[in-house]
Amino acid sequence: MTTAALPQVPGTRDPRVSRTSRVTRFAGSPVLRLVVKRLLMAIPIMLGVTVLTFWVLSLIPGNAAQQLLGPEATPEQVAQLEEQLGLNRPGYVRYGEWLRGAVTGDLGRSIVSNQPVSDLLGERLPVTGELVLLAFVVSLVLAVPVALLAAHRPGGVWDRISMVVSTAGLSVANYVLALILVLVFAVQLGVLPAIGFTPLSEGLWPNVRSLILPSAAIGLPLFCFYARFLRGDLVDQMQQEEYVTTARAKGVGSWQVLIRHAFRNSSFGLITVVGLNLGALIGGTVIIEQIFALPGIGQMLLQAINTRDFIMVQAVVVVFALVAVVANLVVDLLYAVLDPRIRYGSR
Amino acid sequence: MAVAETPISVTDHPGVEHEHEEAPARRGRWRRSLGVAVPGGMVALIVAACFLGPVLFDLPSPVGGNILESYLPAFSPGHLLGTDPNGNDILSRLLYGGRASLFIALAVNVLGLVVGGTLGALSGYLGGVVDTVIMRVLDVLIAFPSLVLTLAVAQALGPSMRNTIFALAFFSIPAFARVARSAVLRLREMPFMAAAQLCGTPAWRVLFKHLAPNTAPQLITFGMLGMGIVIIIEGALSFLGLGIPDPAPSWGNMVATGQLSLSATPMLVVWPSLALLVTVLSFNLLGENLRARWSGR
Amino acid sequence: MSGKQRTATYPVGDSYVSEGVIAAASSGPAAPGPAGEPGEPLLVVEDLRVQFTRGGRRINAVNGLSYELLPGSMMAIIGESGSGKSVSSRALMGLLPPTATITGSVSFAGRELIGMPEREMRELRGGDIAMVFQDPARSLNPTMKIGAQVTEAIRLHSDSDRKGAHARAIELLRMVRLPAPERRFHEYPHQLSGGMRQRVMIAIALAGEPRLLIADEATTALDVTTQAQIMELLVELQQRLGMAVVMISHDLGLAASYAQDVVVMYAGRAVEHAPTATLFGNVRMPYTRALLGAIPALEREPHSLFEVTPGQPPDLSALPKGCPFRPRCPNALDRCVEMPPFREHEPEHWWACWNPVGDETGNGEQE
Ligand SMILES: Nc1ncnc2c1ncn2[C@@H]1O[C@H](COP(=O)(O)OP(=O)(O)O)[C@@H](O)[C@H]1O
Ligand code: SF4
Ligand SMILES: [Mg+2]
After folding, report:
1. Which residue in B133, B137, B148, B285 has the most chain A C-beta atoms within 10 A of its own C-beta, making it the best mutation to test that interface?
2. Is residue B14 part of a domain?
3. Domain count, chain B
């Protein structure tokens, strides 16, 4: 090792540090600390979310017993069923019971159908998951090139066009967009189904075909949002970051500066936004699943609220909140993997 | 050294003579005021149409229409945009529905500003335990899929305009609180705070004095964008039957009713959709352009 | 203001040779070298003007800058912050944002740079003309490995393959004396110290074998020891590779110890220009003297920042009529409401002043 003889410049790591064992490095690594910290922070949030749900649901007039028996039922009948379902006990007792199950992974049984919640979730999550995934992929795949094109010449023709389109796209409610898409592609042109879901078991194309309109209704506004965000971040990088000037001073062409240099750095911001967005996005599937009659988790939520099936509502809320928490965690981890400044723990 | 801060700007070509000293500058300023004036005018027009239109033009009632006059096409005598399945005048329903949307959106934003703004400002000003508690509660509200919460609250309270406002406040309160908190935190770092402390002025008085003028632009832009968001979500609630209860008109429930006969009479969906789009677009543009204008300084 | 002619007395390292050619010796860095053959100037800047349009205001960042630079020489541009040093040097590389309007002429080795098509300009950038910036922490791409950033520059200006570029990059990193170049090649900028990053920046600048290197406050962000090391490196490379160096600085001491020629800028103009010894031995501009006067001439700490001259730097969007230094100038005359021309008043010594230091006239005698 000749490096030992070199004068150590302050602020640099000793070259030998990088040779220490991987395990010790990981244990003390900023990445692991980050994960632990995040998970600890998630616990009170999840507790808060579930308590809040129980509380809000307890405010809803009428309970599952009443809903099950219908308006004709006598108070005695209702009371009897309440007793049977355990609905007459105070809310905190029921919450405690639910929580005890939940921490061991048992989310209970639906009050209405008596099926295990995990079975119902298992049926419906894949539908929603596929819908969201498709919307994500489509919106990102479209947003990146559009943002690059717009940011290449800020104020230019493409920038203006994309600005107009994205402003309009961000102002369209997804349910309105959904109906317009149905009107054009299902009613007028008749090329895509208006409602319904075809499972993957009946073939990839029929399956994807049934999800094109719903995922477009979710993905189009998302595309506008991402394109706009990325364009703004790219322009900031191009105009304010000195490394961009360095790249240009090297003689790198403008597209290459944009793609190789600015986009690389902007992608971190994009990842954050995508992650933060996921929670809101999955909430937005409720109405889309309703319009397109997709047997997903959002549709289940609406049904559960209507029938006062607290256990089901609680399960859906837990799933939604978990998705948001996990998405944030994944963003942080992605950062840690992708951004060398964090990977090597100097930020 | 930063080379450039202005994102987009009017440039003239190299070699332009110095006689037209002011021309490009004036053009830029003019264009920017136009960016605020046009959507601002649109908003004013929409508000005027919804609140004054029905009075000025003596439109038929939005409810209790004659069933024999249902599904009239646009430009029918007495019904400029035609009638819906219940024989109600669509234009009248659009304008009355707009009243409800605008009123709800305004109320939700004011509620968010007052409650959320106070919470956020307190949180940022007091710091410590209060800050931690308030921020954790807000974290829960933010982690909570807002639409689910709103649905549940709307269901719990029953569909009505007042309850819709309360349900939607769950969106606006945490958002405004965040903005206010960060504004207070930023103000606390300002040199005049230290100066005030040296003079013995209580910090909260200085903060209060500077809070409104310093955060007004931010809050107004935020509120404009918030108007758009609330109008969309209110529409969603009404669409699901959890917002404005049925015979009363709202853009959301008009879309929902129209959906039932989408292939036969698509215009029933198109009109309220257009109203939603144009209104939200105007608010968004106004907010965006105001933001660009204020941050461009 | 134009058509200036200077007789050159500097060694000219003839054409650029990759490595090892040591230009026939200018001995001490501070003194202009012994007589050599007069050469064509490498860079002629004539009446360069840059105006920014921003939020409806016009900022006159450069207002008729003129200077010449001989091949293989080291010249310093000094001036207060905001005097247009960076903007003028970026202007000649075409690195300014589109909000800038550039007029005037910059000829590099006989080619006009102002208005040159982007395509041609790109070949020159990083090829014949290279630049090193002030803040090495910000001027390297934080998400790219050192090696990738150096090889990118190499491959842009030669047709070497991956392996060739890799070898050349290591060679360059060694040339700028980056410790352990093979390992550093695979590291990210944040893992290096400020001094090492600046060495990497210089290696990148050298990748295209430039004839002109512009170092824009390249050592300002570094501590004093590192600053000296980097300056020594630049001088050594300049002599060894025969390239011309424009070092931009607001540090008079630095300029005095390394440059052969000094241009003093004020409000976007050159106000005094002379070989270093001439300039410091016989200051003519009141502004330059004010800069020097802020520090005792010899006992001064080597690279201290000079104190701000009394008064405010001029507002570039509303420059006063005539000499821009007038509001702060102790020598000001009535006449100074006219713009003093920038002329070669003494051999090799240019300045722009009606009432220069050394032959002051009172106001009354003027009329
Ligand atoms: N992109 C820009 N837009 C507007 N003004 C600028 C821009 N870049 C530099 N300037 C202005 O030009 C003037 C000269 O700046 P500069 O050349 O960086 O000075 P310095 O001599 O310190 O390097 C400054 O007043 C600066 O504010
Ligand atoms: S021209 Fe006049 S004002 Fe300007 S530096 Fe000379 S003496 Fe001072
Ligand atoms: Mg500078």
Report:
1. B148
2. no
3. 1
C77 lines ligand 1 (CB under 6 A): no
Check if the beta carbon of residue C52 is closer than 8 Å to that of residue C61. yes
User: How buried is residue C1: exposed, middle or buried, by Cβ count under 10 Å (0-12/13-18/19+)?
Assistant: middle
Q: What CATH number is associated with residue A146?
A: 1.10.3720.10
What residues does the ion ligand 3 have nearby, CB within 5 Å? Answer: B 1; C 86
Ligand nearest to the CA of C353: 2
**Structural domain of A283:** 124-306
In Å, how far is A173's CA from the nearest CA of chain B? 6
Measured between alpha carbons, how far is C53 from B6 in angstroms, rounded to an integer? 9
pLDDT bin (cut points 50, 70, 90) of residue C140 is very high
pLDDT per residue as tens digits for the range C317-357: 888 888 999 888 888 888 999 999 999 999 999 999 999 98
Is A252 at the interface with chain C, CB within 8 A?
yes
Any domain includes A85: no
**CB nearest to A239's CB, from B4, B137, B240:** B4
pLDDT value of position C358: 80
Tell how far the Cα of A232 is from the centroid of ligand 1, in angstroms: 23
When divided into structural domains, chain A yields a total of: 1
Q: Please check whether residue A285 lies inside any domain of the structure.
A: yes
CA dihedral sign, ordered A75, A77, A78, A79: positive
Quick one: pLDDT at residue A147?
Answer: 94
Q: Look up the domain containing B136 and give its range.
A: 33-60+83-295
Query: Comparing A224-228, C162-166, C313-317, which segment has the lowest mean pLDDT?
Result: C313-317
CB C167 within 8 A of CB C158: no
List of residues 6+ apart from B288 with CB closer than 8 A: A167, B221, B225
Higher-confidence residue: A109 or C55?
A109
In a domain, B230, yes or no: yes
* Whether C99 and B11 lie within 8 Å, measured CB to CB: yes
Residue A222 lies in a domain: yes
Residue B13 resides in a domain:
no
Taking the centre of ligand 1 as the mean of its atom positions, its distance from the CA of residue C134, in whole angstroms, is: 14
Indicate the residue of C90, C127, C143 with minimum beta-carbon distance to A251.
Answer: C127
Residue B46 to residues A4, B269, B277: CA-CA distances in angstroms? 75, 19, 12
Query: Does the beta carbon of C336 lie inside 6 Å of ligand 2?
Result: yes
Which member of A56, A172, A176 has the closest CB to residue B152? A56
CB C324 near ligand 2, within 6 Å: no
CATH number, residue B95: 1.10.3720.10
B127 falls within a domain: yes
* In-domain check, residue A233: yes
**Is the minimum distance from the CB of C214 to ligand 1 under 6 angstroms?**
no
Q: How far is CA C146 from CA B210, B259, C186, C206, C221, in A?
A: 47, 59, 6, 14, 20
Is the pLDDT reported for residue B246 higher than 80? no
- pTM for the whole structure: 0.80
